[in-house]
Amino acid sequence: MTVRLGANQYGKAENRVFRVYRDSARHQIRDLNVSTSLRGRFEDAHTVGDQQDVLPTDTQKNTCFAFAKEKGVRSIEEYALTLADHFIAATPAADGARVEVEEYSWDRIAVDGAGHDHAFVRGGSGVRSTVVNVDGSGQDRTAHVVSGIHDLTVLKSTGSEFQGFLKDRYTTLQETDDRILATSLVARWRYDSSYVGRGEIDWDKSFDAIKALLLQRFAEIHSLALQQTLYGMGEAVLEQHPEVAEIRFSAPNKHHFLVDLSPFGLDNRNEVFVAADRPYGLIEATVLREDAPEPGSAWHAVPGFC
Ligand SMILES: O=c1[nH]c(=O)c2[nH]c(=O)[nH]c2[nH]1
């Protein structure tokens, strides 16, 4: 029997890096969860246990913290790209690096109508993330950035219908022209790698605008199905953001079922629902430009988005 090593990568997962900028009394904070991985020519580490090519995961962890001080965290994308390039330069056997960063948002606590200088409350709407994959270095470098948001829980109490669907002998679902539409959205968008390579993207501005647009379109679109809502949200992002090549969604349909109150002599005109947690419909869709550049390793190891 002959066996060989297949795809592999290694790194330090979930480094909880917390950076405080205390240059003035009004502190700024960035609360991150950083995972690193290197891939490349690491056969010997696996097949004969030779570690000479292996930059330890412990070193990768240390670098995440040291760079938060030395280089700072202007945006999670810039921080991740800097780390990825560094790991490739520091590890001759590495052909590529993957750095994933989640950012937990904090809002200033309002005291007497003003945001406090150094007291914060966890922000509620969604977790920002990025997955950076860099292949090679110097002239041969290609950088891919997939940014996104998850746990963006949204609901509309009307403006959603679901009817005209295929029926067979097992169909019991009633058609409706007025239902609750709710989801905990995962959206990830791939930046056009030529924009990434030219360093032309204002990452924070792009994220804020895309998040606002996703929410705006969710609110505005009269939904005929979650599928149609997602497509409309993706279309708007691609229309308004030339820097984005593709956007992918994963959206659990958080069903709200009308409760039958007739046993109690009560009518129920879309007023009382049971919010079911499972099972749930799971609607997933990609919206991309016809001429989107090839993704390369952009979606490498992004769970559920291969
Ligand atoms: O928006 C929806 N899409 C579906 O595909 C579906 N299927 C279902 O039972 N309810 C819904 N809702």
TrEMBL record:
It catalyses: urate + O2 + H2O = 5-hydroxyisourate + H2O2. Catalyzes the oxidation of uric acid to 5-hydroxyisourate, which is further processed to form (S)-allantoin. PROSITE patterns: URICASE (PS00366). It comes from the Bacteria. InterPro entries: Uricase (IPR002042), Uricase_CS (IPR019842). The active site is at residues 12, 57, 255. Its EC number is 1.7.3.3. Keywords: Oxidoreductase, Purine metabolism. The lineage of its organism: Bacteria, Bacillati, Actinomycetota, Actinomycetes, Propionibacteriales. O2 binds at residues 57, 253. Urate binds at residues 57-58, 162, 179, 227, 253. PANTHER family: URICASE. Belongs to the uricase family. GO terms for molecular function: urate oxidase activity. Pathway: Purine metabolism; urate degradation; (S)-allantoin from urate: step 1/3. This is Uricase.
